[in-house]
Amino acid sequence: MNVDADGRVRVDGPLTFATVSARLADSAPLFRPRQRLSFDLSGVTAVDSAALALLVEWLRLGRQKGVQVEFTAVPAALRSLAEVSELDQIDASLAAP
């Protein structure tokens, strides 16, 4: 995973039980001192509840490291999972538009 100078991170491919552990490990170096990280999820091709857990973990890491975390282009399926889990209330970017 790469981050640009503005803190944007493009996430591509599936975010599922099969992939999130590796994504979490790959993202750890991104949480070095910086003001914000913006995860662009427009390239995500499949999600399950593990994707939601990953986003919650990124939010937790951000709070722990003092980095503002936001999500853009959140897939509708992930928004639905967030709504069912009532996690759409902890981060506005997870709420339905």
UniProtKB/TrEMBL annotation:
InterPro entries: MlaB-like_STAS, STAS_dom, STAS_dom_sf. Residues 9-97 form the STAS domain. It holds the Pfam family STAS_2. This is STAS domain-containing protein. It comes from Immundisolibacter cernigliae.
